[in-house]
């Protein structure tokens, strides 16, 4: 299990969910240049919808500080709103009936966000479970953007590509944690075996590190190079040729392996400390956002 998976899922809902719902509100908002609080108060058809009941105190404050009351720009203002506030505006200020599939899917994003933030935000999620959740979210996000394209007569292919990349980046972060562990084991326990190197200067064969058939990225960063066993090896000895007459004794190999593991541990600890500081800062911001329903 990976304790960071819960954080990745929260990011996929809070950040990517906001990215998908923002254009829904920006393109379908019925208030024109009126800020939502004035729109609700001045529109006779919305008199039955109490602004101060629909929106929480924090949400009202976010709306009222996001722009002028009479020269309001929904496109820029909505970029400041969180998933919950965007979903409420989609529900009450965009002219979408309760049976509308676009509204239902927008409210589904809010429901998932509330579940993760208030019920399961701190749970440990397996890689398999996170993969399923990310797949479901990506499908939901693309469906929302497809429906919005039809309603707004606009091309949202760029937004679809961006949200795919955002979700895929989270998938790669899950994979990389396991890849790093397996590389460390291969590098420091197989002392007499040729090891992976990140260079094509040797006679080598490259292997794709991702098994995704749909991955079109053919850059060298997506590959690891392994030296050909019939030509030249790179081992953890000072000599690079298998015909070298100066072999390091077995105890020397063991010492080198132990030293390598220690160095890896020190580097890993330093990286972990830096990552933990960033994650704590990010977590504090997420907790503040999750405190608002």
Q: Would you write up a description of this structure?
A:
There is one protein chain. This protein has helices at residues 5-28, 36-42, 51-54, 57-64, 74-77, 83-92, 101-118, 127-152, 157-189, 250-290; strands spanning 204-208, 223-227. By secondary structure, it is mainly α. The chain has 2 domains: 5-179, no CATH class; 182-280, no CATH class. The chain is globular, with a radius of gyration of 26 Å.
Radius of gyration: 26 Å
* Shape estimate: globular
The helix-strand sequence is HHHHHHHHHEEH
- Count of folded domains: 2
In terms of quaternary structure, the protein is single chain
Strand order of the largest sheet: 1-2
Low-pLDDT runs: 180-216, 219-246
Mind sketching the topology for me?
Blueprint: H1 5-28, H2 36-42, H3 51-54, H4 57-64, H5 74-77, H6 83-92, H7 101-118, H8 127-152, H9 157-189, E1 204-208, E2 223-227, H10 250-290
Antiparallel strand pairs: 1-2
């Amino acid at each position: 299990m990976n304790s960071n998976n819960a954080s990745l899922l929260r990011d996929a809902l809070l950040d990517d969910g906001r990215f998908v719902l923002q254009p829904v509100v920006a393109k379908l908002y019925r208030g024109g240049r009126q800020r939502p609080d004035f729109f609700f108060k001045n529109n006779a058809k919305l008199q039955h919808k109490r602004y101060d009941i629909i929106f929480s105190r924090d949400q009202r404050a976010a709306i009222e500080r996001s722009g002028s009351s009479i020269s309001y720009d929904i496109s820029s203002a909505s970029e400041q709103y969180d998933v919950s506030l965007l979903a409420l505006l989609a529900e009450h200020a965009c002219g979408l009936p309760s049976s509308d599939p676009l509204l239902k899917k927008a409210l589904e994003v809010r429901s998932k966000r509330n579940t993760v933030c208030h019920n399961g935000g701190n749970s440990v999620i397996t890689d398999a479970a996170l993969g399923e959740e990310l797949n479901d979210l990506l499908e939901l996000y693309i469906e929302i953007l497809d429906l919005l394209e039809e309603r707004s007569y606009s091309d949202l292919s760029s937004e679809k590509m961006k949200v795919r990349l955002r979700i895929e980046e989270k998938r790669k972060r899950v994979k990389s944690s396991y890849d790093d562990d397996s590389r460390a084991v291969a590098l420091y326990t197989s002392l007499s075996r040729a090891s992976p190197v990140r260079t094509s200067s040797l006679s080598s064969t490259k292997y794709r590190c991702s098994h995704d058939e749909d991955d079109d990225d053919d850059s060298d960063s997506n590959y690891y190079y392994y030296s050909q066993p019939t030509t030249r090896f790179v081992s953890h000895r000072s000599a690079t040729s298998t015909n070298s007459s100066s072999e390091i004794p077995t105890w020397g190999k063991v010492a080198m392996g132990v030293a390598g593991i220690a160095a890896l541990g020190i580097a890993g600890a330093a990286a972990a400390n830096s990552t933990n500081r960033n994650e704590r800062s990010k977590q504090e911001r997420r907790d503040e956002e999750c405190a608002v329903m």
